[in-house]
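Example record used in the benchmark description.
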Amino acid sequence: MSEEADELWRSFVESRLDEFDLEAERAAVAEAALENPRRLGVVDEVRTIAEVDVLVARPEAGARTDLVVVWIHGGAFTVMRADSYRALAGHLAGELGAEVYVPDFTLAPEAVFPQALDELERCIGEIVGDSADRAEVLVGDSAGAALTLGVMKRRRARNEAMPLLAALQCPWLDLSLQSPSLTRNAPLDAVLGAAPLADHVAWYLGADTGAEDPIASPLHGDLAGLGAIAIQAAEYDVLADDALRFTRKARDAGVAVDLEMAAEMPHGYQFFVGMIPEADGALAALARRIEQQLSARQVDSTA
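Model output (structure tokens):
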């Protein structure tokens, strides 16, 4: 662990509240995100797409036309908004030279499953369009990973195309909370405590959806046919075993899955790009992985 990361995680532990309050957490996260360093040479704006406000980060010099990236943000389905991802989306836009879209879907408990998923499907459909010349990449972190795979499972049911790559960061994929790391890593994860997760699940699913629903909780159910997936997980994350269990099950189903496990990192460490070298390295690795998938696509198209 770098000195910068060690200092950051210590500050998180010292400032952690004894009891979770949703509105206080929303306000604290929004304020903290303002401290994330922004990427030079990248601008952002908010557009309304399919009745959803979308943060769009793009290089000032112009964006490439062969790639579109949609980032489905995390925050336990309840806390974070697209605006908190200005720095992160800007850094990825700068690395790739591409536009990065972050839909600001409706949070729980104001909206329960499947409203956020419905909004994302409509919004992503308009963002991506029907151009075969532009590759689609979906990125989902934490709860956003569950939403990403929910979108993909719905597409599979309709026999629609998968994205070129789905990149999942510290994914939360089992809303039934069966992963052993929830207990094992509870003393180690400086960012995410396991205790309030059941509350977030209840707020998100409401009374009519079970925690093992295969669309809401995508580790459950059939995983075959989901397309290429790249996962960045973290050793100290209380959700680390969600990534491990999903990887094993997906590979058994014939899905191409890459898994990287960051040593000594807590949940969502990638969010702190520009602040700790581990996050900078993770974002650079994500950009390289996307470029590799694009190169493979180009080779296949000319074969």
